[in-house]
């Protein structure tokens, strides 16, 4: 748990102040030092352009984190809103949202994200949006289930009996009681989004900028796999470390927040 | 039971129609004209016009949609924009490769996930449990394609035990199936562990032990059976995600299959091909989930009585 938090703090620091942590500039290309194995000078080796892999990872962390957090915020909030409305209102709105969710869920998530990002054109924002849409159904389902459970509790009847307006019941009484499973889901969702976004850049949808993100770096390294294992290995390790840490924190949150476990 | 299946099938048909519609509009409404993408930036307006006409892209979107749906209901899924061949033939040719990958990886995921999950629950808080939990955590946190690359590096490049790419032989199936299976085994084993632990705490287990039933029988006959319901649900979810995984795995291992075809089709905006692939994915997802729902009634008699 402690090491997970430390890893996350380190990666966040990389994302905010890359120039303080990275030994080189991500734009430094050194023709004399291409495809160097890990050494004291180049901790994790160099890539096919002679760029330091560690430096590239440090600079690439910002994109990975932004995608993970951004898509969970957008997808999670949109999903929570759909779930809240569907669960609270019930009747036709519920049927409508749930059928819509069935439809979206029957399309494999990565294909949906791929189709959306091709349609919108490449760019970091596109990937965030595409992943957000793909994760909405999951959040909406959990939220709806939670809302339906809370809605039947007595304090909601009490609130209604004293004439509290619907919007206030939803926002002030139901929503706070549904937050903890959503919080857990959003935490592990960050990891999931980072995995999908790296898969999308691996398939060739990453934005083409001077500073590659982790997934793109990994896919580049794949071409040099047999002669330079380090280019593909370390970005993958970085993604795994970040996602493992996020998932560990998610598990811990679940244990703390889930009353059944205490 | 029969009525239940019929009702589910009817709903499923609606879901399939709706998902085909949704994808049609995502691919069509958003910017980017397929004819322009096929001809490149140097196309003259006339050739563009001609291609648009021959693909039927000059008609209004609604007309295109109804044309497509009319063909769809007759079983005609259209021709690929690129190869001009019927898309259904193109996809059916790829189906065996993807299905064998999916089947093999589900088998690996289920066996590995169940064994690890049960071990972890039975030896709760012992060394085995910690090791299994660590393995599961890593396997769900790893990018599938990275695992694939590592497997190739270790087993093909260094040890030279197994071929890295291609399809055809069984040996060529092992690495991709492991790659895809391990990823799902992690989430499955976590779930199996939780549900077995939950069942172990129930009172009937105390009764079974009290009447002197051997621990092995308690576990295999009673606990596992009760822990199977959430597990089977999870298998349905995992199977639904397999196609997503296949997209990536087939690319890493340069295998032929639906996943790779659909990635290329999406990039080239080959709309009929993408539509047909999404259709196959949706049908696959629905069949698996129907099987899951039916299997509940066999595993748990309490559910059977409800229908």
Task: Characterise the protein shown here.
With 262 residues, chain A is mainly alpha-helical. Chain A has one domain: MetI-like (MetI-like fold, Orthogonal Bundle). Chain A is 74% helix and 0% strand. Chain A has ten helices and no strands. In chain A, helix 3 runs parallel beside helix 10 and helix 5 packs across helix 6. The longest helix of chain A has 37 residues. Chain A is elongated, with a radius of gyration of 22 Å. Chain A starts with a helix and ends in a 5-residue tail after the last helix. The mean pLDDT of chain A is 82. Chain B has two domains: 72 residues, no CATH class; 214 residues, MetI-like (MetI-like fold). The model of chain B has no long low-confidence stretch (mean pLDDT 81). Chain B has 307 residues and is an all-alpha fold. In chain B, 79% of the residues lie in helices and 0% in strands. The chains are: A mainly alpha (262), B mainly alpha (307). At the A-B interface, helix 4, helix 5, helix 8, helix 9 and helix 10 of A face helix 1, helix 6, helix 7, helix 10 and helix 11 of B.
Q: Total number of helical segments of chain B?
A: 13
CATH topology title of the largest domain in chain B: MetI-like fold
- Report on the biggest sheet of chain B: none
Which structural category do the helix and sheet elements of chain B fall into?
A: mainly alpha
Count the domains of chain B. Answer: 2
**C-alpha Rg of chain B, in Å?**
24 Å
- Average predicted local confidence, pLDDT of chain A: 82
The CATH fourth-level homologous superfamily of chain A: MetI-like
The radius of gyration computed from the alpha-carbon positions of chain A, rounded to a whole number of angstroms, is 22 Å
Strand/helix succession of chain A: HHHHHHHHHH
Number of domains of chain A: 1
Q: What is the average of the pLDDT values of chain B?
A: 81
CATH architecture of chain A: Orthogonal Bundle
Q: What is the element string of chain B, with H for helices and E for strands?
A: HHHHHHHHHHHHH
Helix percentage of chain A: over 70%
Strand count of chain A? 0
């Amino acid at each position: 748990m402690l090491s997970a938090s430390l890893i996350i703090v380190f990666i966040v620091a990389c994302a905010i102040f890359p120039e303080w942590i990275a030994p080189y500039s991500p734009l430094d290309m050194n023709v004399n030092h291409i495809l160097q194995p890990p050494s004291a000078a180049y901790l994790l080796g160099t890539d096919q352009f002679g760029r330091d892999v560690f430096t590239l990872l440090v600079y690439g962390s910002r994109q990975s984190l932004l995608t993970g957090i951004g898509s969970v915020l957008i997808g999670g909030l949109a999903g929570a809103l759909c779930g809240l409305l569907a669960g609270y209102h019930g009747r036709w709105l519920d049927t409508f949202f749930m059928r819509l969710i069935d439809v979206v869920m029957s399309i494999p998530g990565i294909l949906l994200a791929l189709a959306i990002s091709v349609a919108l054109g490449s760019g970091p924002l596109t990937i965030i949006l595409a992943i957000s849409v793909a994760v909405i159904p999951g959040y909406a389902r959990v939220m709806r289930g939670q809302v339906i459970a809370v809605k039947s509790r007595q304090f909601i009847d009490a609130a209604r009996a004293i004439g509290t307006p619907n919007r206030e019941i939803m926002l002030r009484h139901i929503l706070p009681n549904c937050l903890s499973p959503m919080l857990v889901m959003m935490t592990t969702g960050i990891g999931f989004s980072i995995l999908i976004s790296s898969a999308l850049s691996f398939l060739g949808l990453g934005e083409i900028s001077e500073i590659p993100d982790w997934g793109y770096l990994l896919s580049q390294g794949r071409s040099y796999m047999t002669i330079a294992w380090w280019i593909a290995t370390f970005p993958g390790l970085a993604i795994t470390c970040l996602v493992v840490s996020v998932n560990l924190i998610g598990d811990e949150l679940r244990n703390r927040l889930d009353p059944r476990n205490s | 039971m029969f009525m239940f299946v019929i009702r589910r099938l009817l709903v499923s048909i609606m879901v399939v129609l709706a998902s085909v519609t949704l994808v049609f509009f995502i691919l069509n409404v958003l910017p980017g004209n397929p004819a322009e993408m096929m001809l490149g930036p140097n196309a003259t307006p006339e050739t563009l016009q001609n291609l648009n006409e021959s693909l039927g892209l000059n008609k209004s979107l609604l007309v295109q949609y109804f044309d497509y749906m009319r063909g769809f209901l007759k079983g005609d899924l259209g021709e690929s924009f690129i190869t001009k061949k019927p898309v259904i033939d193109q996809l059916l040719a790829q189906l065996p490769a993807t299905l064998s990958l999916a089947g093999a990886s589900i088998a690996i995921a289920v066996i590995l996930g169940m064994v690890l999950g049960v071990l972890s629950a039975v030896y709760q808080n012992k060394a085995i449990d910690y090791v299994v939990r660590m393995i599961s955590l890593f396997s769900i946190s790893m990018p599938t394609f990275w695992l694939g690359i590592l497997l190739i590096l270790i087993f093909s490049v260094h040890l030279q035990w197994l071929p890295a790419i291609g399809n055809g032989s069984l040996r060529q199936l092992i690495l991709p199936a492991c790659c895809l299976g391990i990823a799902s085994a992690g989430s499955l084993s976590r779930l199996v562990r939780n549900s077995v632990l939950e069942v172990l705490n129930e009172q009937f287990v105390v009764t079974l032990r009290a009447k002197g039933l051997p621990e092995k029988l308690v576990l295999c006959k009673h606990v596992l059976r009760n822990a199977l319901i959430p597990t089977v649900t999870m298998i349905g979810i995992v199977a639904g995600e397999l196609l997503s995984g296949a997209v990536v795995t087939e690319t890493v291992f340069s295998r032929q299959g639906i996943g790779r075809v659909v990635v290329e089709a999406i990039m080239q905006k080959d709309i009929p091909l993408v539509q047909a692939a999404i259709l196959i994915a949706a049908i696959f997802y629905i069949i698996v989930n129907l099987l899951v729902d039916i299997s509940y009634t066999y595993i748990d008699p309490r559910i059977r009585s409800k229908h």
